[in-house]
Amino acid sequence: MSEVNIDDPRWEGNVPWFLRHSEFEAQEDLFRFFELTASRVTQFFLYDVVLFKDRSMNHEDKRHLVAQVKNQSFSLFSYHEDNKTKDVMDYLPNFFTPQAMKGTALNKLKKSNPHRRKWVSAGSGSIIDGISKEQYIENNLPQFFPEVLKERLFVLEVFLRVVNKKDIKDSSFSSLRTDLRGYLAISKVMLDIRENPILITPIDEPLLQKEVVEELLPRLQLKFPQEGHNLIEAYHQLLTESDTNKIFGNAFKALEVIARSISGNPSLLLSDKAQVTKAFPGLHPTTIKSVVNLAAHRGDEGGHGGKAPPINQMRYLLLHVCNVALLLLETRDAT
């Protein structure tokens, strides 16, 4: 089965979290975060803090909100409203509990091995191949936790987007976001929640902002104002999930202009190891190799028409581009 194309325009900017951040290592610290989140979502539905700007949220408002989350999460969050009088506020909070997530992981375990599905679903005490059902589950269930946790992060992101589009008091959403960010911190989860648009992002993106905006731009503005602008533009395009060919192409061209200016070689190609070695003899061979490898990722004509990196790898490559630019500036300053 081929990989899902996260650059497909039909996503319309709503690529699921687990596809955008497939490389994220979901740790079990997230269980603690979601335990706190489940309680906070209950409060969100239950108390006056969730008042609309002109009236209280009624049962139909809640039903509509929950249905939107189901639809926009591609039914990863699902429920059966078998009791029309039951308050739907129960469905979402329960979905985020560790017990519910482990139940989802158990379902994935059953589907992964159809031959043992009935056995796993059976009562306790049965033994196959010298192992009990309980021991089999204990040994194999954890392998499905990362997938389940990343799917939950996607549903939470969808929930926050839906809530943010509702006619809810600004203070209500701000309070919810503040609390969730605190839960991430106290659970030692390396994620944050951005606004405009609402995105749950790995902590490395604030690191990227620090490297690009705070460290690189002031130094580039003095001698390379246009290239500094291009790198900052690439950074902002990354945050809005624009076309990766354009992002990486612009960033790498800016780096190449800087390298040509510093080396005094107007035709320098960073894809050519011999040229880079001659232009920057002070660079360590490993660093030169990394620069050449970086050039190979380019998706424009200079990179021989290769496919540009997917968005979930671009943040690391753009950070690498900025680090190389800083290194070249330091090389110039040292000579």
| Topology, number of strands | 4
Order of strands across the main sheet: 1-2
- Overall number of domains: 2
* Average pLDDT level: 79
Largest sheet: 2 strands, antiparallel
H/E order of the elements?
A: HHHHHHEEHHHEEHHHHHH
Tell me, what's the shape? globular
How much helix, percentage-wise, in residues?
A: 55-70%
Poorly predicted regions: 300-305
Descriptors:
two-stranded antiparallel ribbon, 61% helix, mainly alpha, 2 domains, 335 residues, globular
Q: What is the secondary structure topology, with strand pairs?
A:
Blueprint: H1 17-20, H2 29-46, H3 59-72, H4 91-95, H5 98-112, H6 117-121, E1 127-128, E2 131-132, H7 133-140, H8 145-165, H9 170-186, E3 191-194, E4 199-202, H10 204-223, H11 225-239, H12 244-263, H13 273-279, H14 285-295, H15 311-334
Antiparallel strand pairs: 1-2, 3-4
State the gist of this model.
61% of the residues lie in helices and 4% in strands. It is mostly helical and 335 residues long.
Structure description:
It is a single chain. This protein has helices at 17-20, 29-46, 59-72, 91-95, 98-112, 117-121, 133-140, 145-165, 170-186, 204-223, 225-239, 244-263, 273-279, 285-295, 311-334; strands spanning 127-128, 131-132, 191-194, 199-202. The chain is mainly alpha-helical and 335 residues long. The protein has two domains: 9-202, no CATH class; 204-334. Strands 1-2 form a two-stranded antiparallel ribbon. A two-stranded antiparallel sheet has the order 3-4. Helix 5 packs across helix 8 (145-165), helix 11 (225-239) runs antiparallel to helix 15 and helix 12 packs parallel to helix 15. The radius of gyration is 25 Å and the shape is globular.
